[in-house]
Write a structure and sequence with these properties.
The structure is a single chain. It contains ten helices and no strands. The protein has a domain of 182 residues. With 281 residues, it is mainly α.
């Protein structure tokens, strides 16, 4: 009696579509899990930075005013704000003031070069000098953290912003030197007093505070006198010497002119003559 042979792997063939759909569901579930993990990691990273920017506007306003008032009590460590919102906004304000000063001068604006240079200068000073002073503070055994140094130097830029905003609109060297000594000196004395209260030893205090005061005051001089010239030199190096903003070249007038029946050669000659006259003036 003949028997019909069952097809090899029949069970697998029968379950093929169901197994494929199950694999697709697993892949979709794994992809969703990865996206959720990335979103959670991003939120966790943002949540880590939240304490450094969680500050009330009234607190920022009071700290701005305090940054211009030197302290007298240096016998015990003075408190430093552990937030970065105010310093970061002051750095961006300084960037905007530098751009305003460049636009009011005769510097030719070319794409985003001025923006990048201003951001690099301000953030480079803030981060670079803070790191350098923190390194010196570590060598001098001063009681200050990197976050506190960033906040201290950031609020110290408030005086620079006021001085540059006024002197970019009122071009008087005597007025600048007055504000440089008054406002810039007050903000520098505030930072120096805080560092003195957190440093032990006259030699360490002189080294640390003298370096910070010199860098902070010289940076304001650089922004007022040398920054524009340095930026113009960088622009000339990167993009060549200054070129006229517009060079008008006379174009040929098409031959078909329904409104005017004059020959095209006469019109072209007239247009070129007018262009030469304008360029000569």
């Amino acid at each position: 009696m003949a028997t019909t042979a069952a097809p090899a792997g029949g069970a697998r063939n029968g379950a093929g579509p169901e197994w494929g759909g199950f694999e697709e569901n697993i892949q979709m579930w794994q992809a969703g899990k990865r996206q959720a993990s990335r979103a959670f990691s991003l939120y966790a990273n943002i949540d880590i930075l939240r304490p450094y920017f969680d500050v009330e506007p009234a607190q920022v306003r009071s700290r701005l005013l305090e940054s211009m008032i030197p302290i007298k009590m240096v016998n015990f460590p003075q408190k430093i704000a552990g937030e970065l919102y105010g310093p970061l906004m002051l750095v961006f304000t300084l960037v905007a003031i530098l751009l305003h000063g460049m636009k009011t001068s005769d510097t030719i604006i070319r794409e985003g070069t001025l923006m990048g240079t201003a951001i690099g200068t301000c953030f480079g000073y803030w981060l670079g000098v803070s790191s350098f002073i923190y390194f010196l503070a570590y060598l001098c055994n001063a009681q200050i953290t990197m976050l506190q140094m960033l906040a201290l130097l950031g609020y110290g830029l408030f005086g620079h912003c006021i001085v540059l905003f006024i002197t970019y609109n009122i071009h008087l060297h005597a007025l600048f030197y007055l504000f440089w000594l008054l406002l810039g000196g007050l903000s520098t004395l505030r930072m120096v007093a805080v560092l003195v209260s957190r440093t032990v030893g006259p030699t360490q205090r002189l080294l640390l505070c003298g370096t910070l005061a010199a860098l902070h005051m010289l940076f304001l001089l650089y922004l007022h006198f040398a920054y524009h010239k340095v930026v113009e030199g960088i622009l000339d190096t990167l993009e060549g010497p200054n070129i006229p903003p517009m060079q008008r070249v006379p174009r040929d007038i098409p031959a078909a002119l329904p409104a005017a029946r004059l020959p095209a050669t006469v019109l072209n000659a007239t247009a070129k003559a007018v262009a030469v006259t304008l360029q000569s003036h």
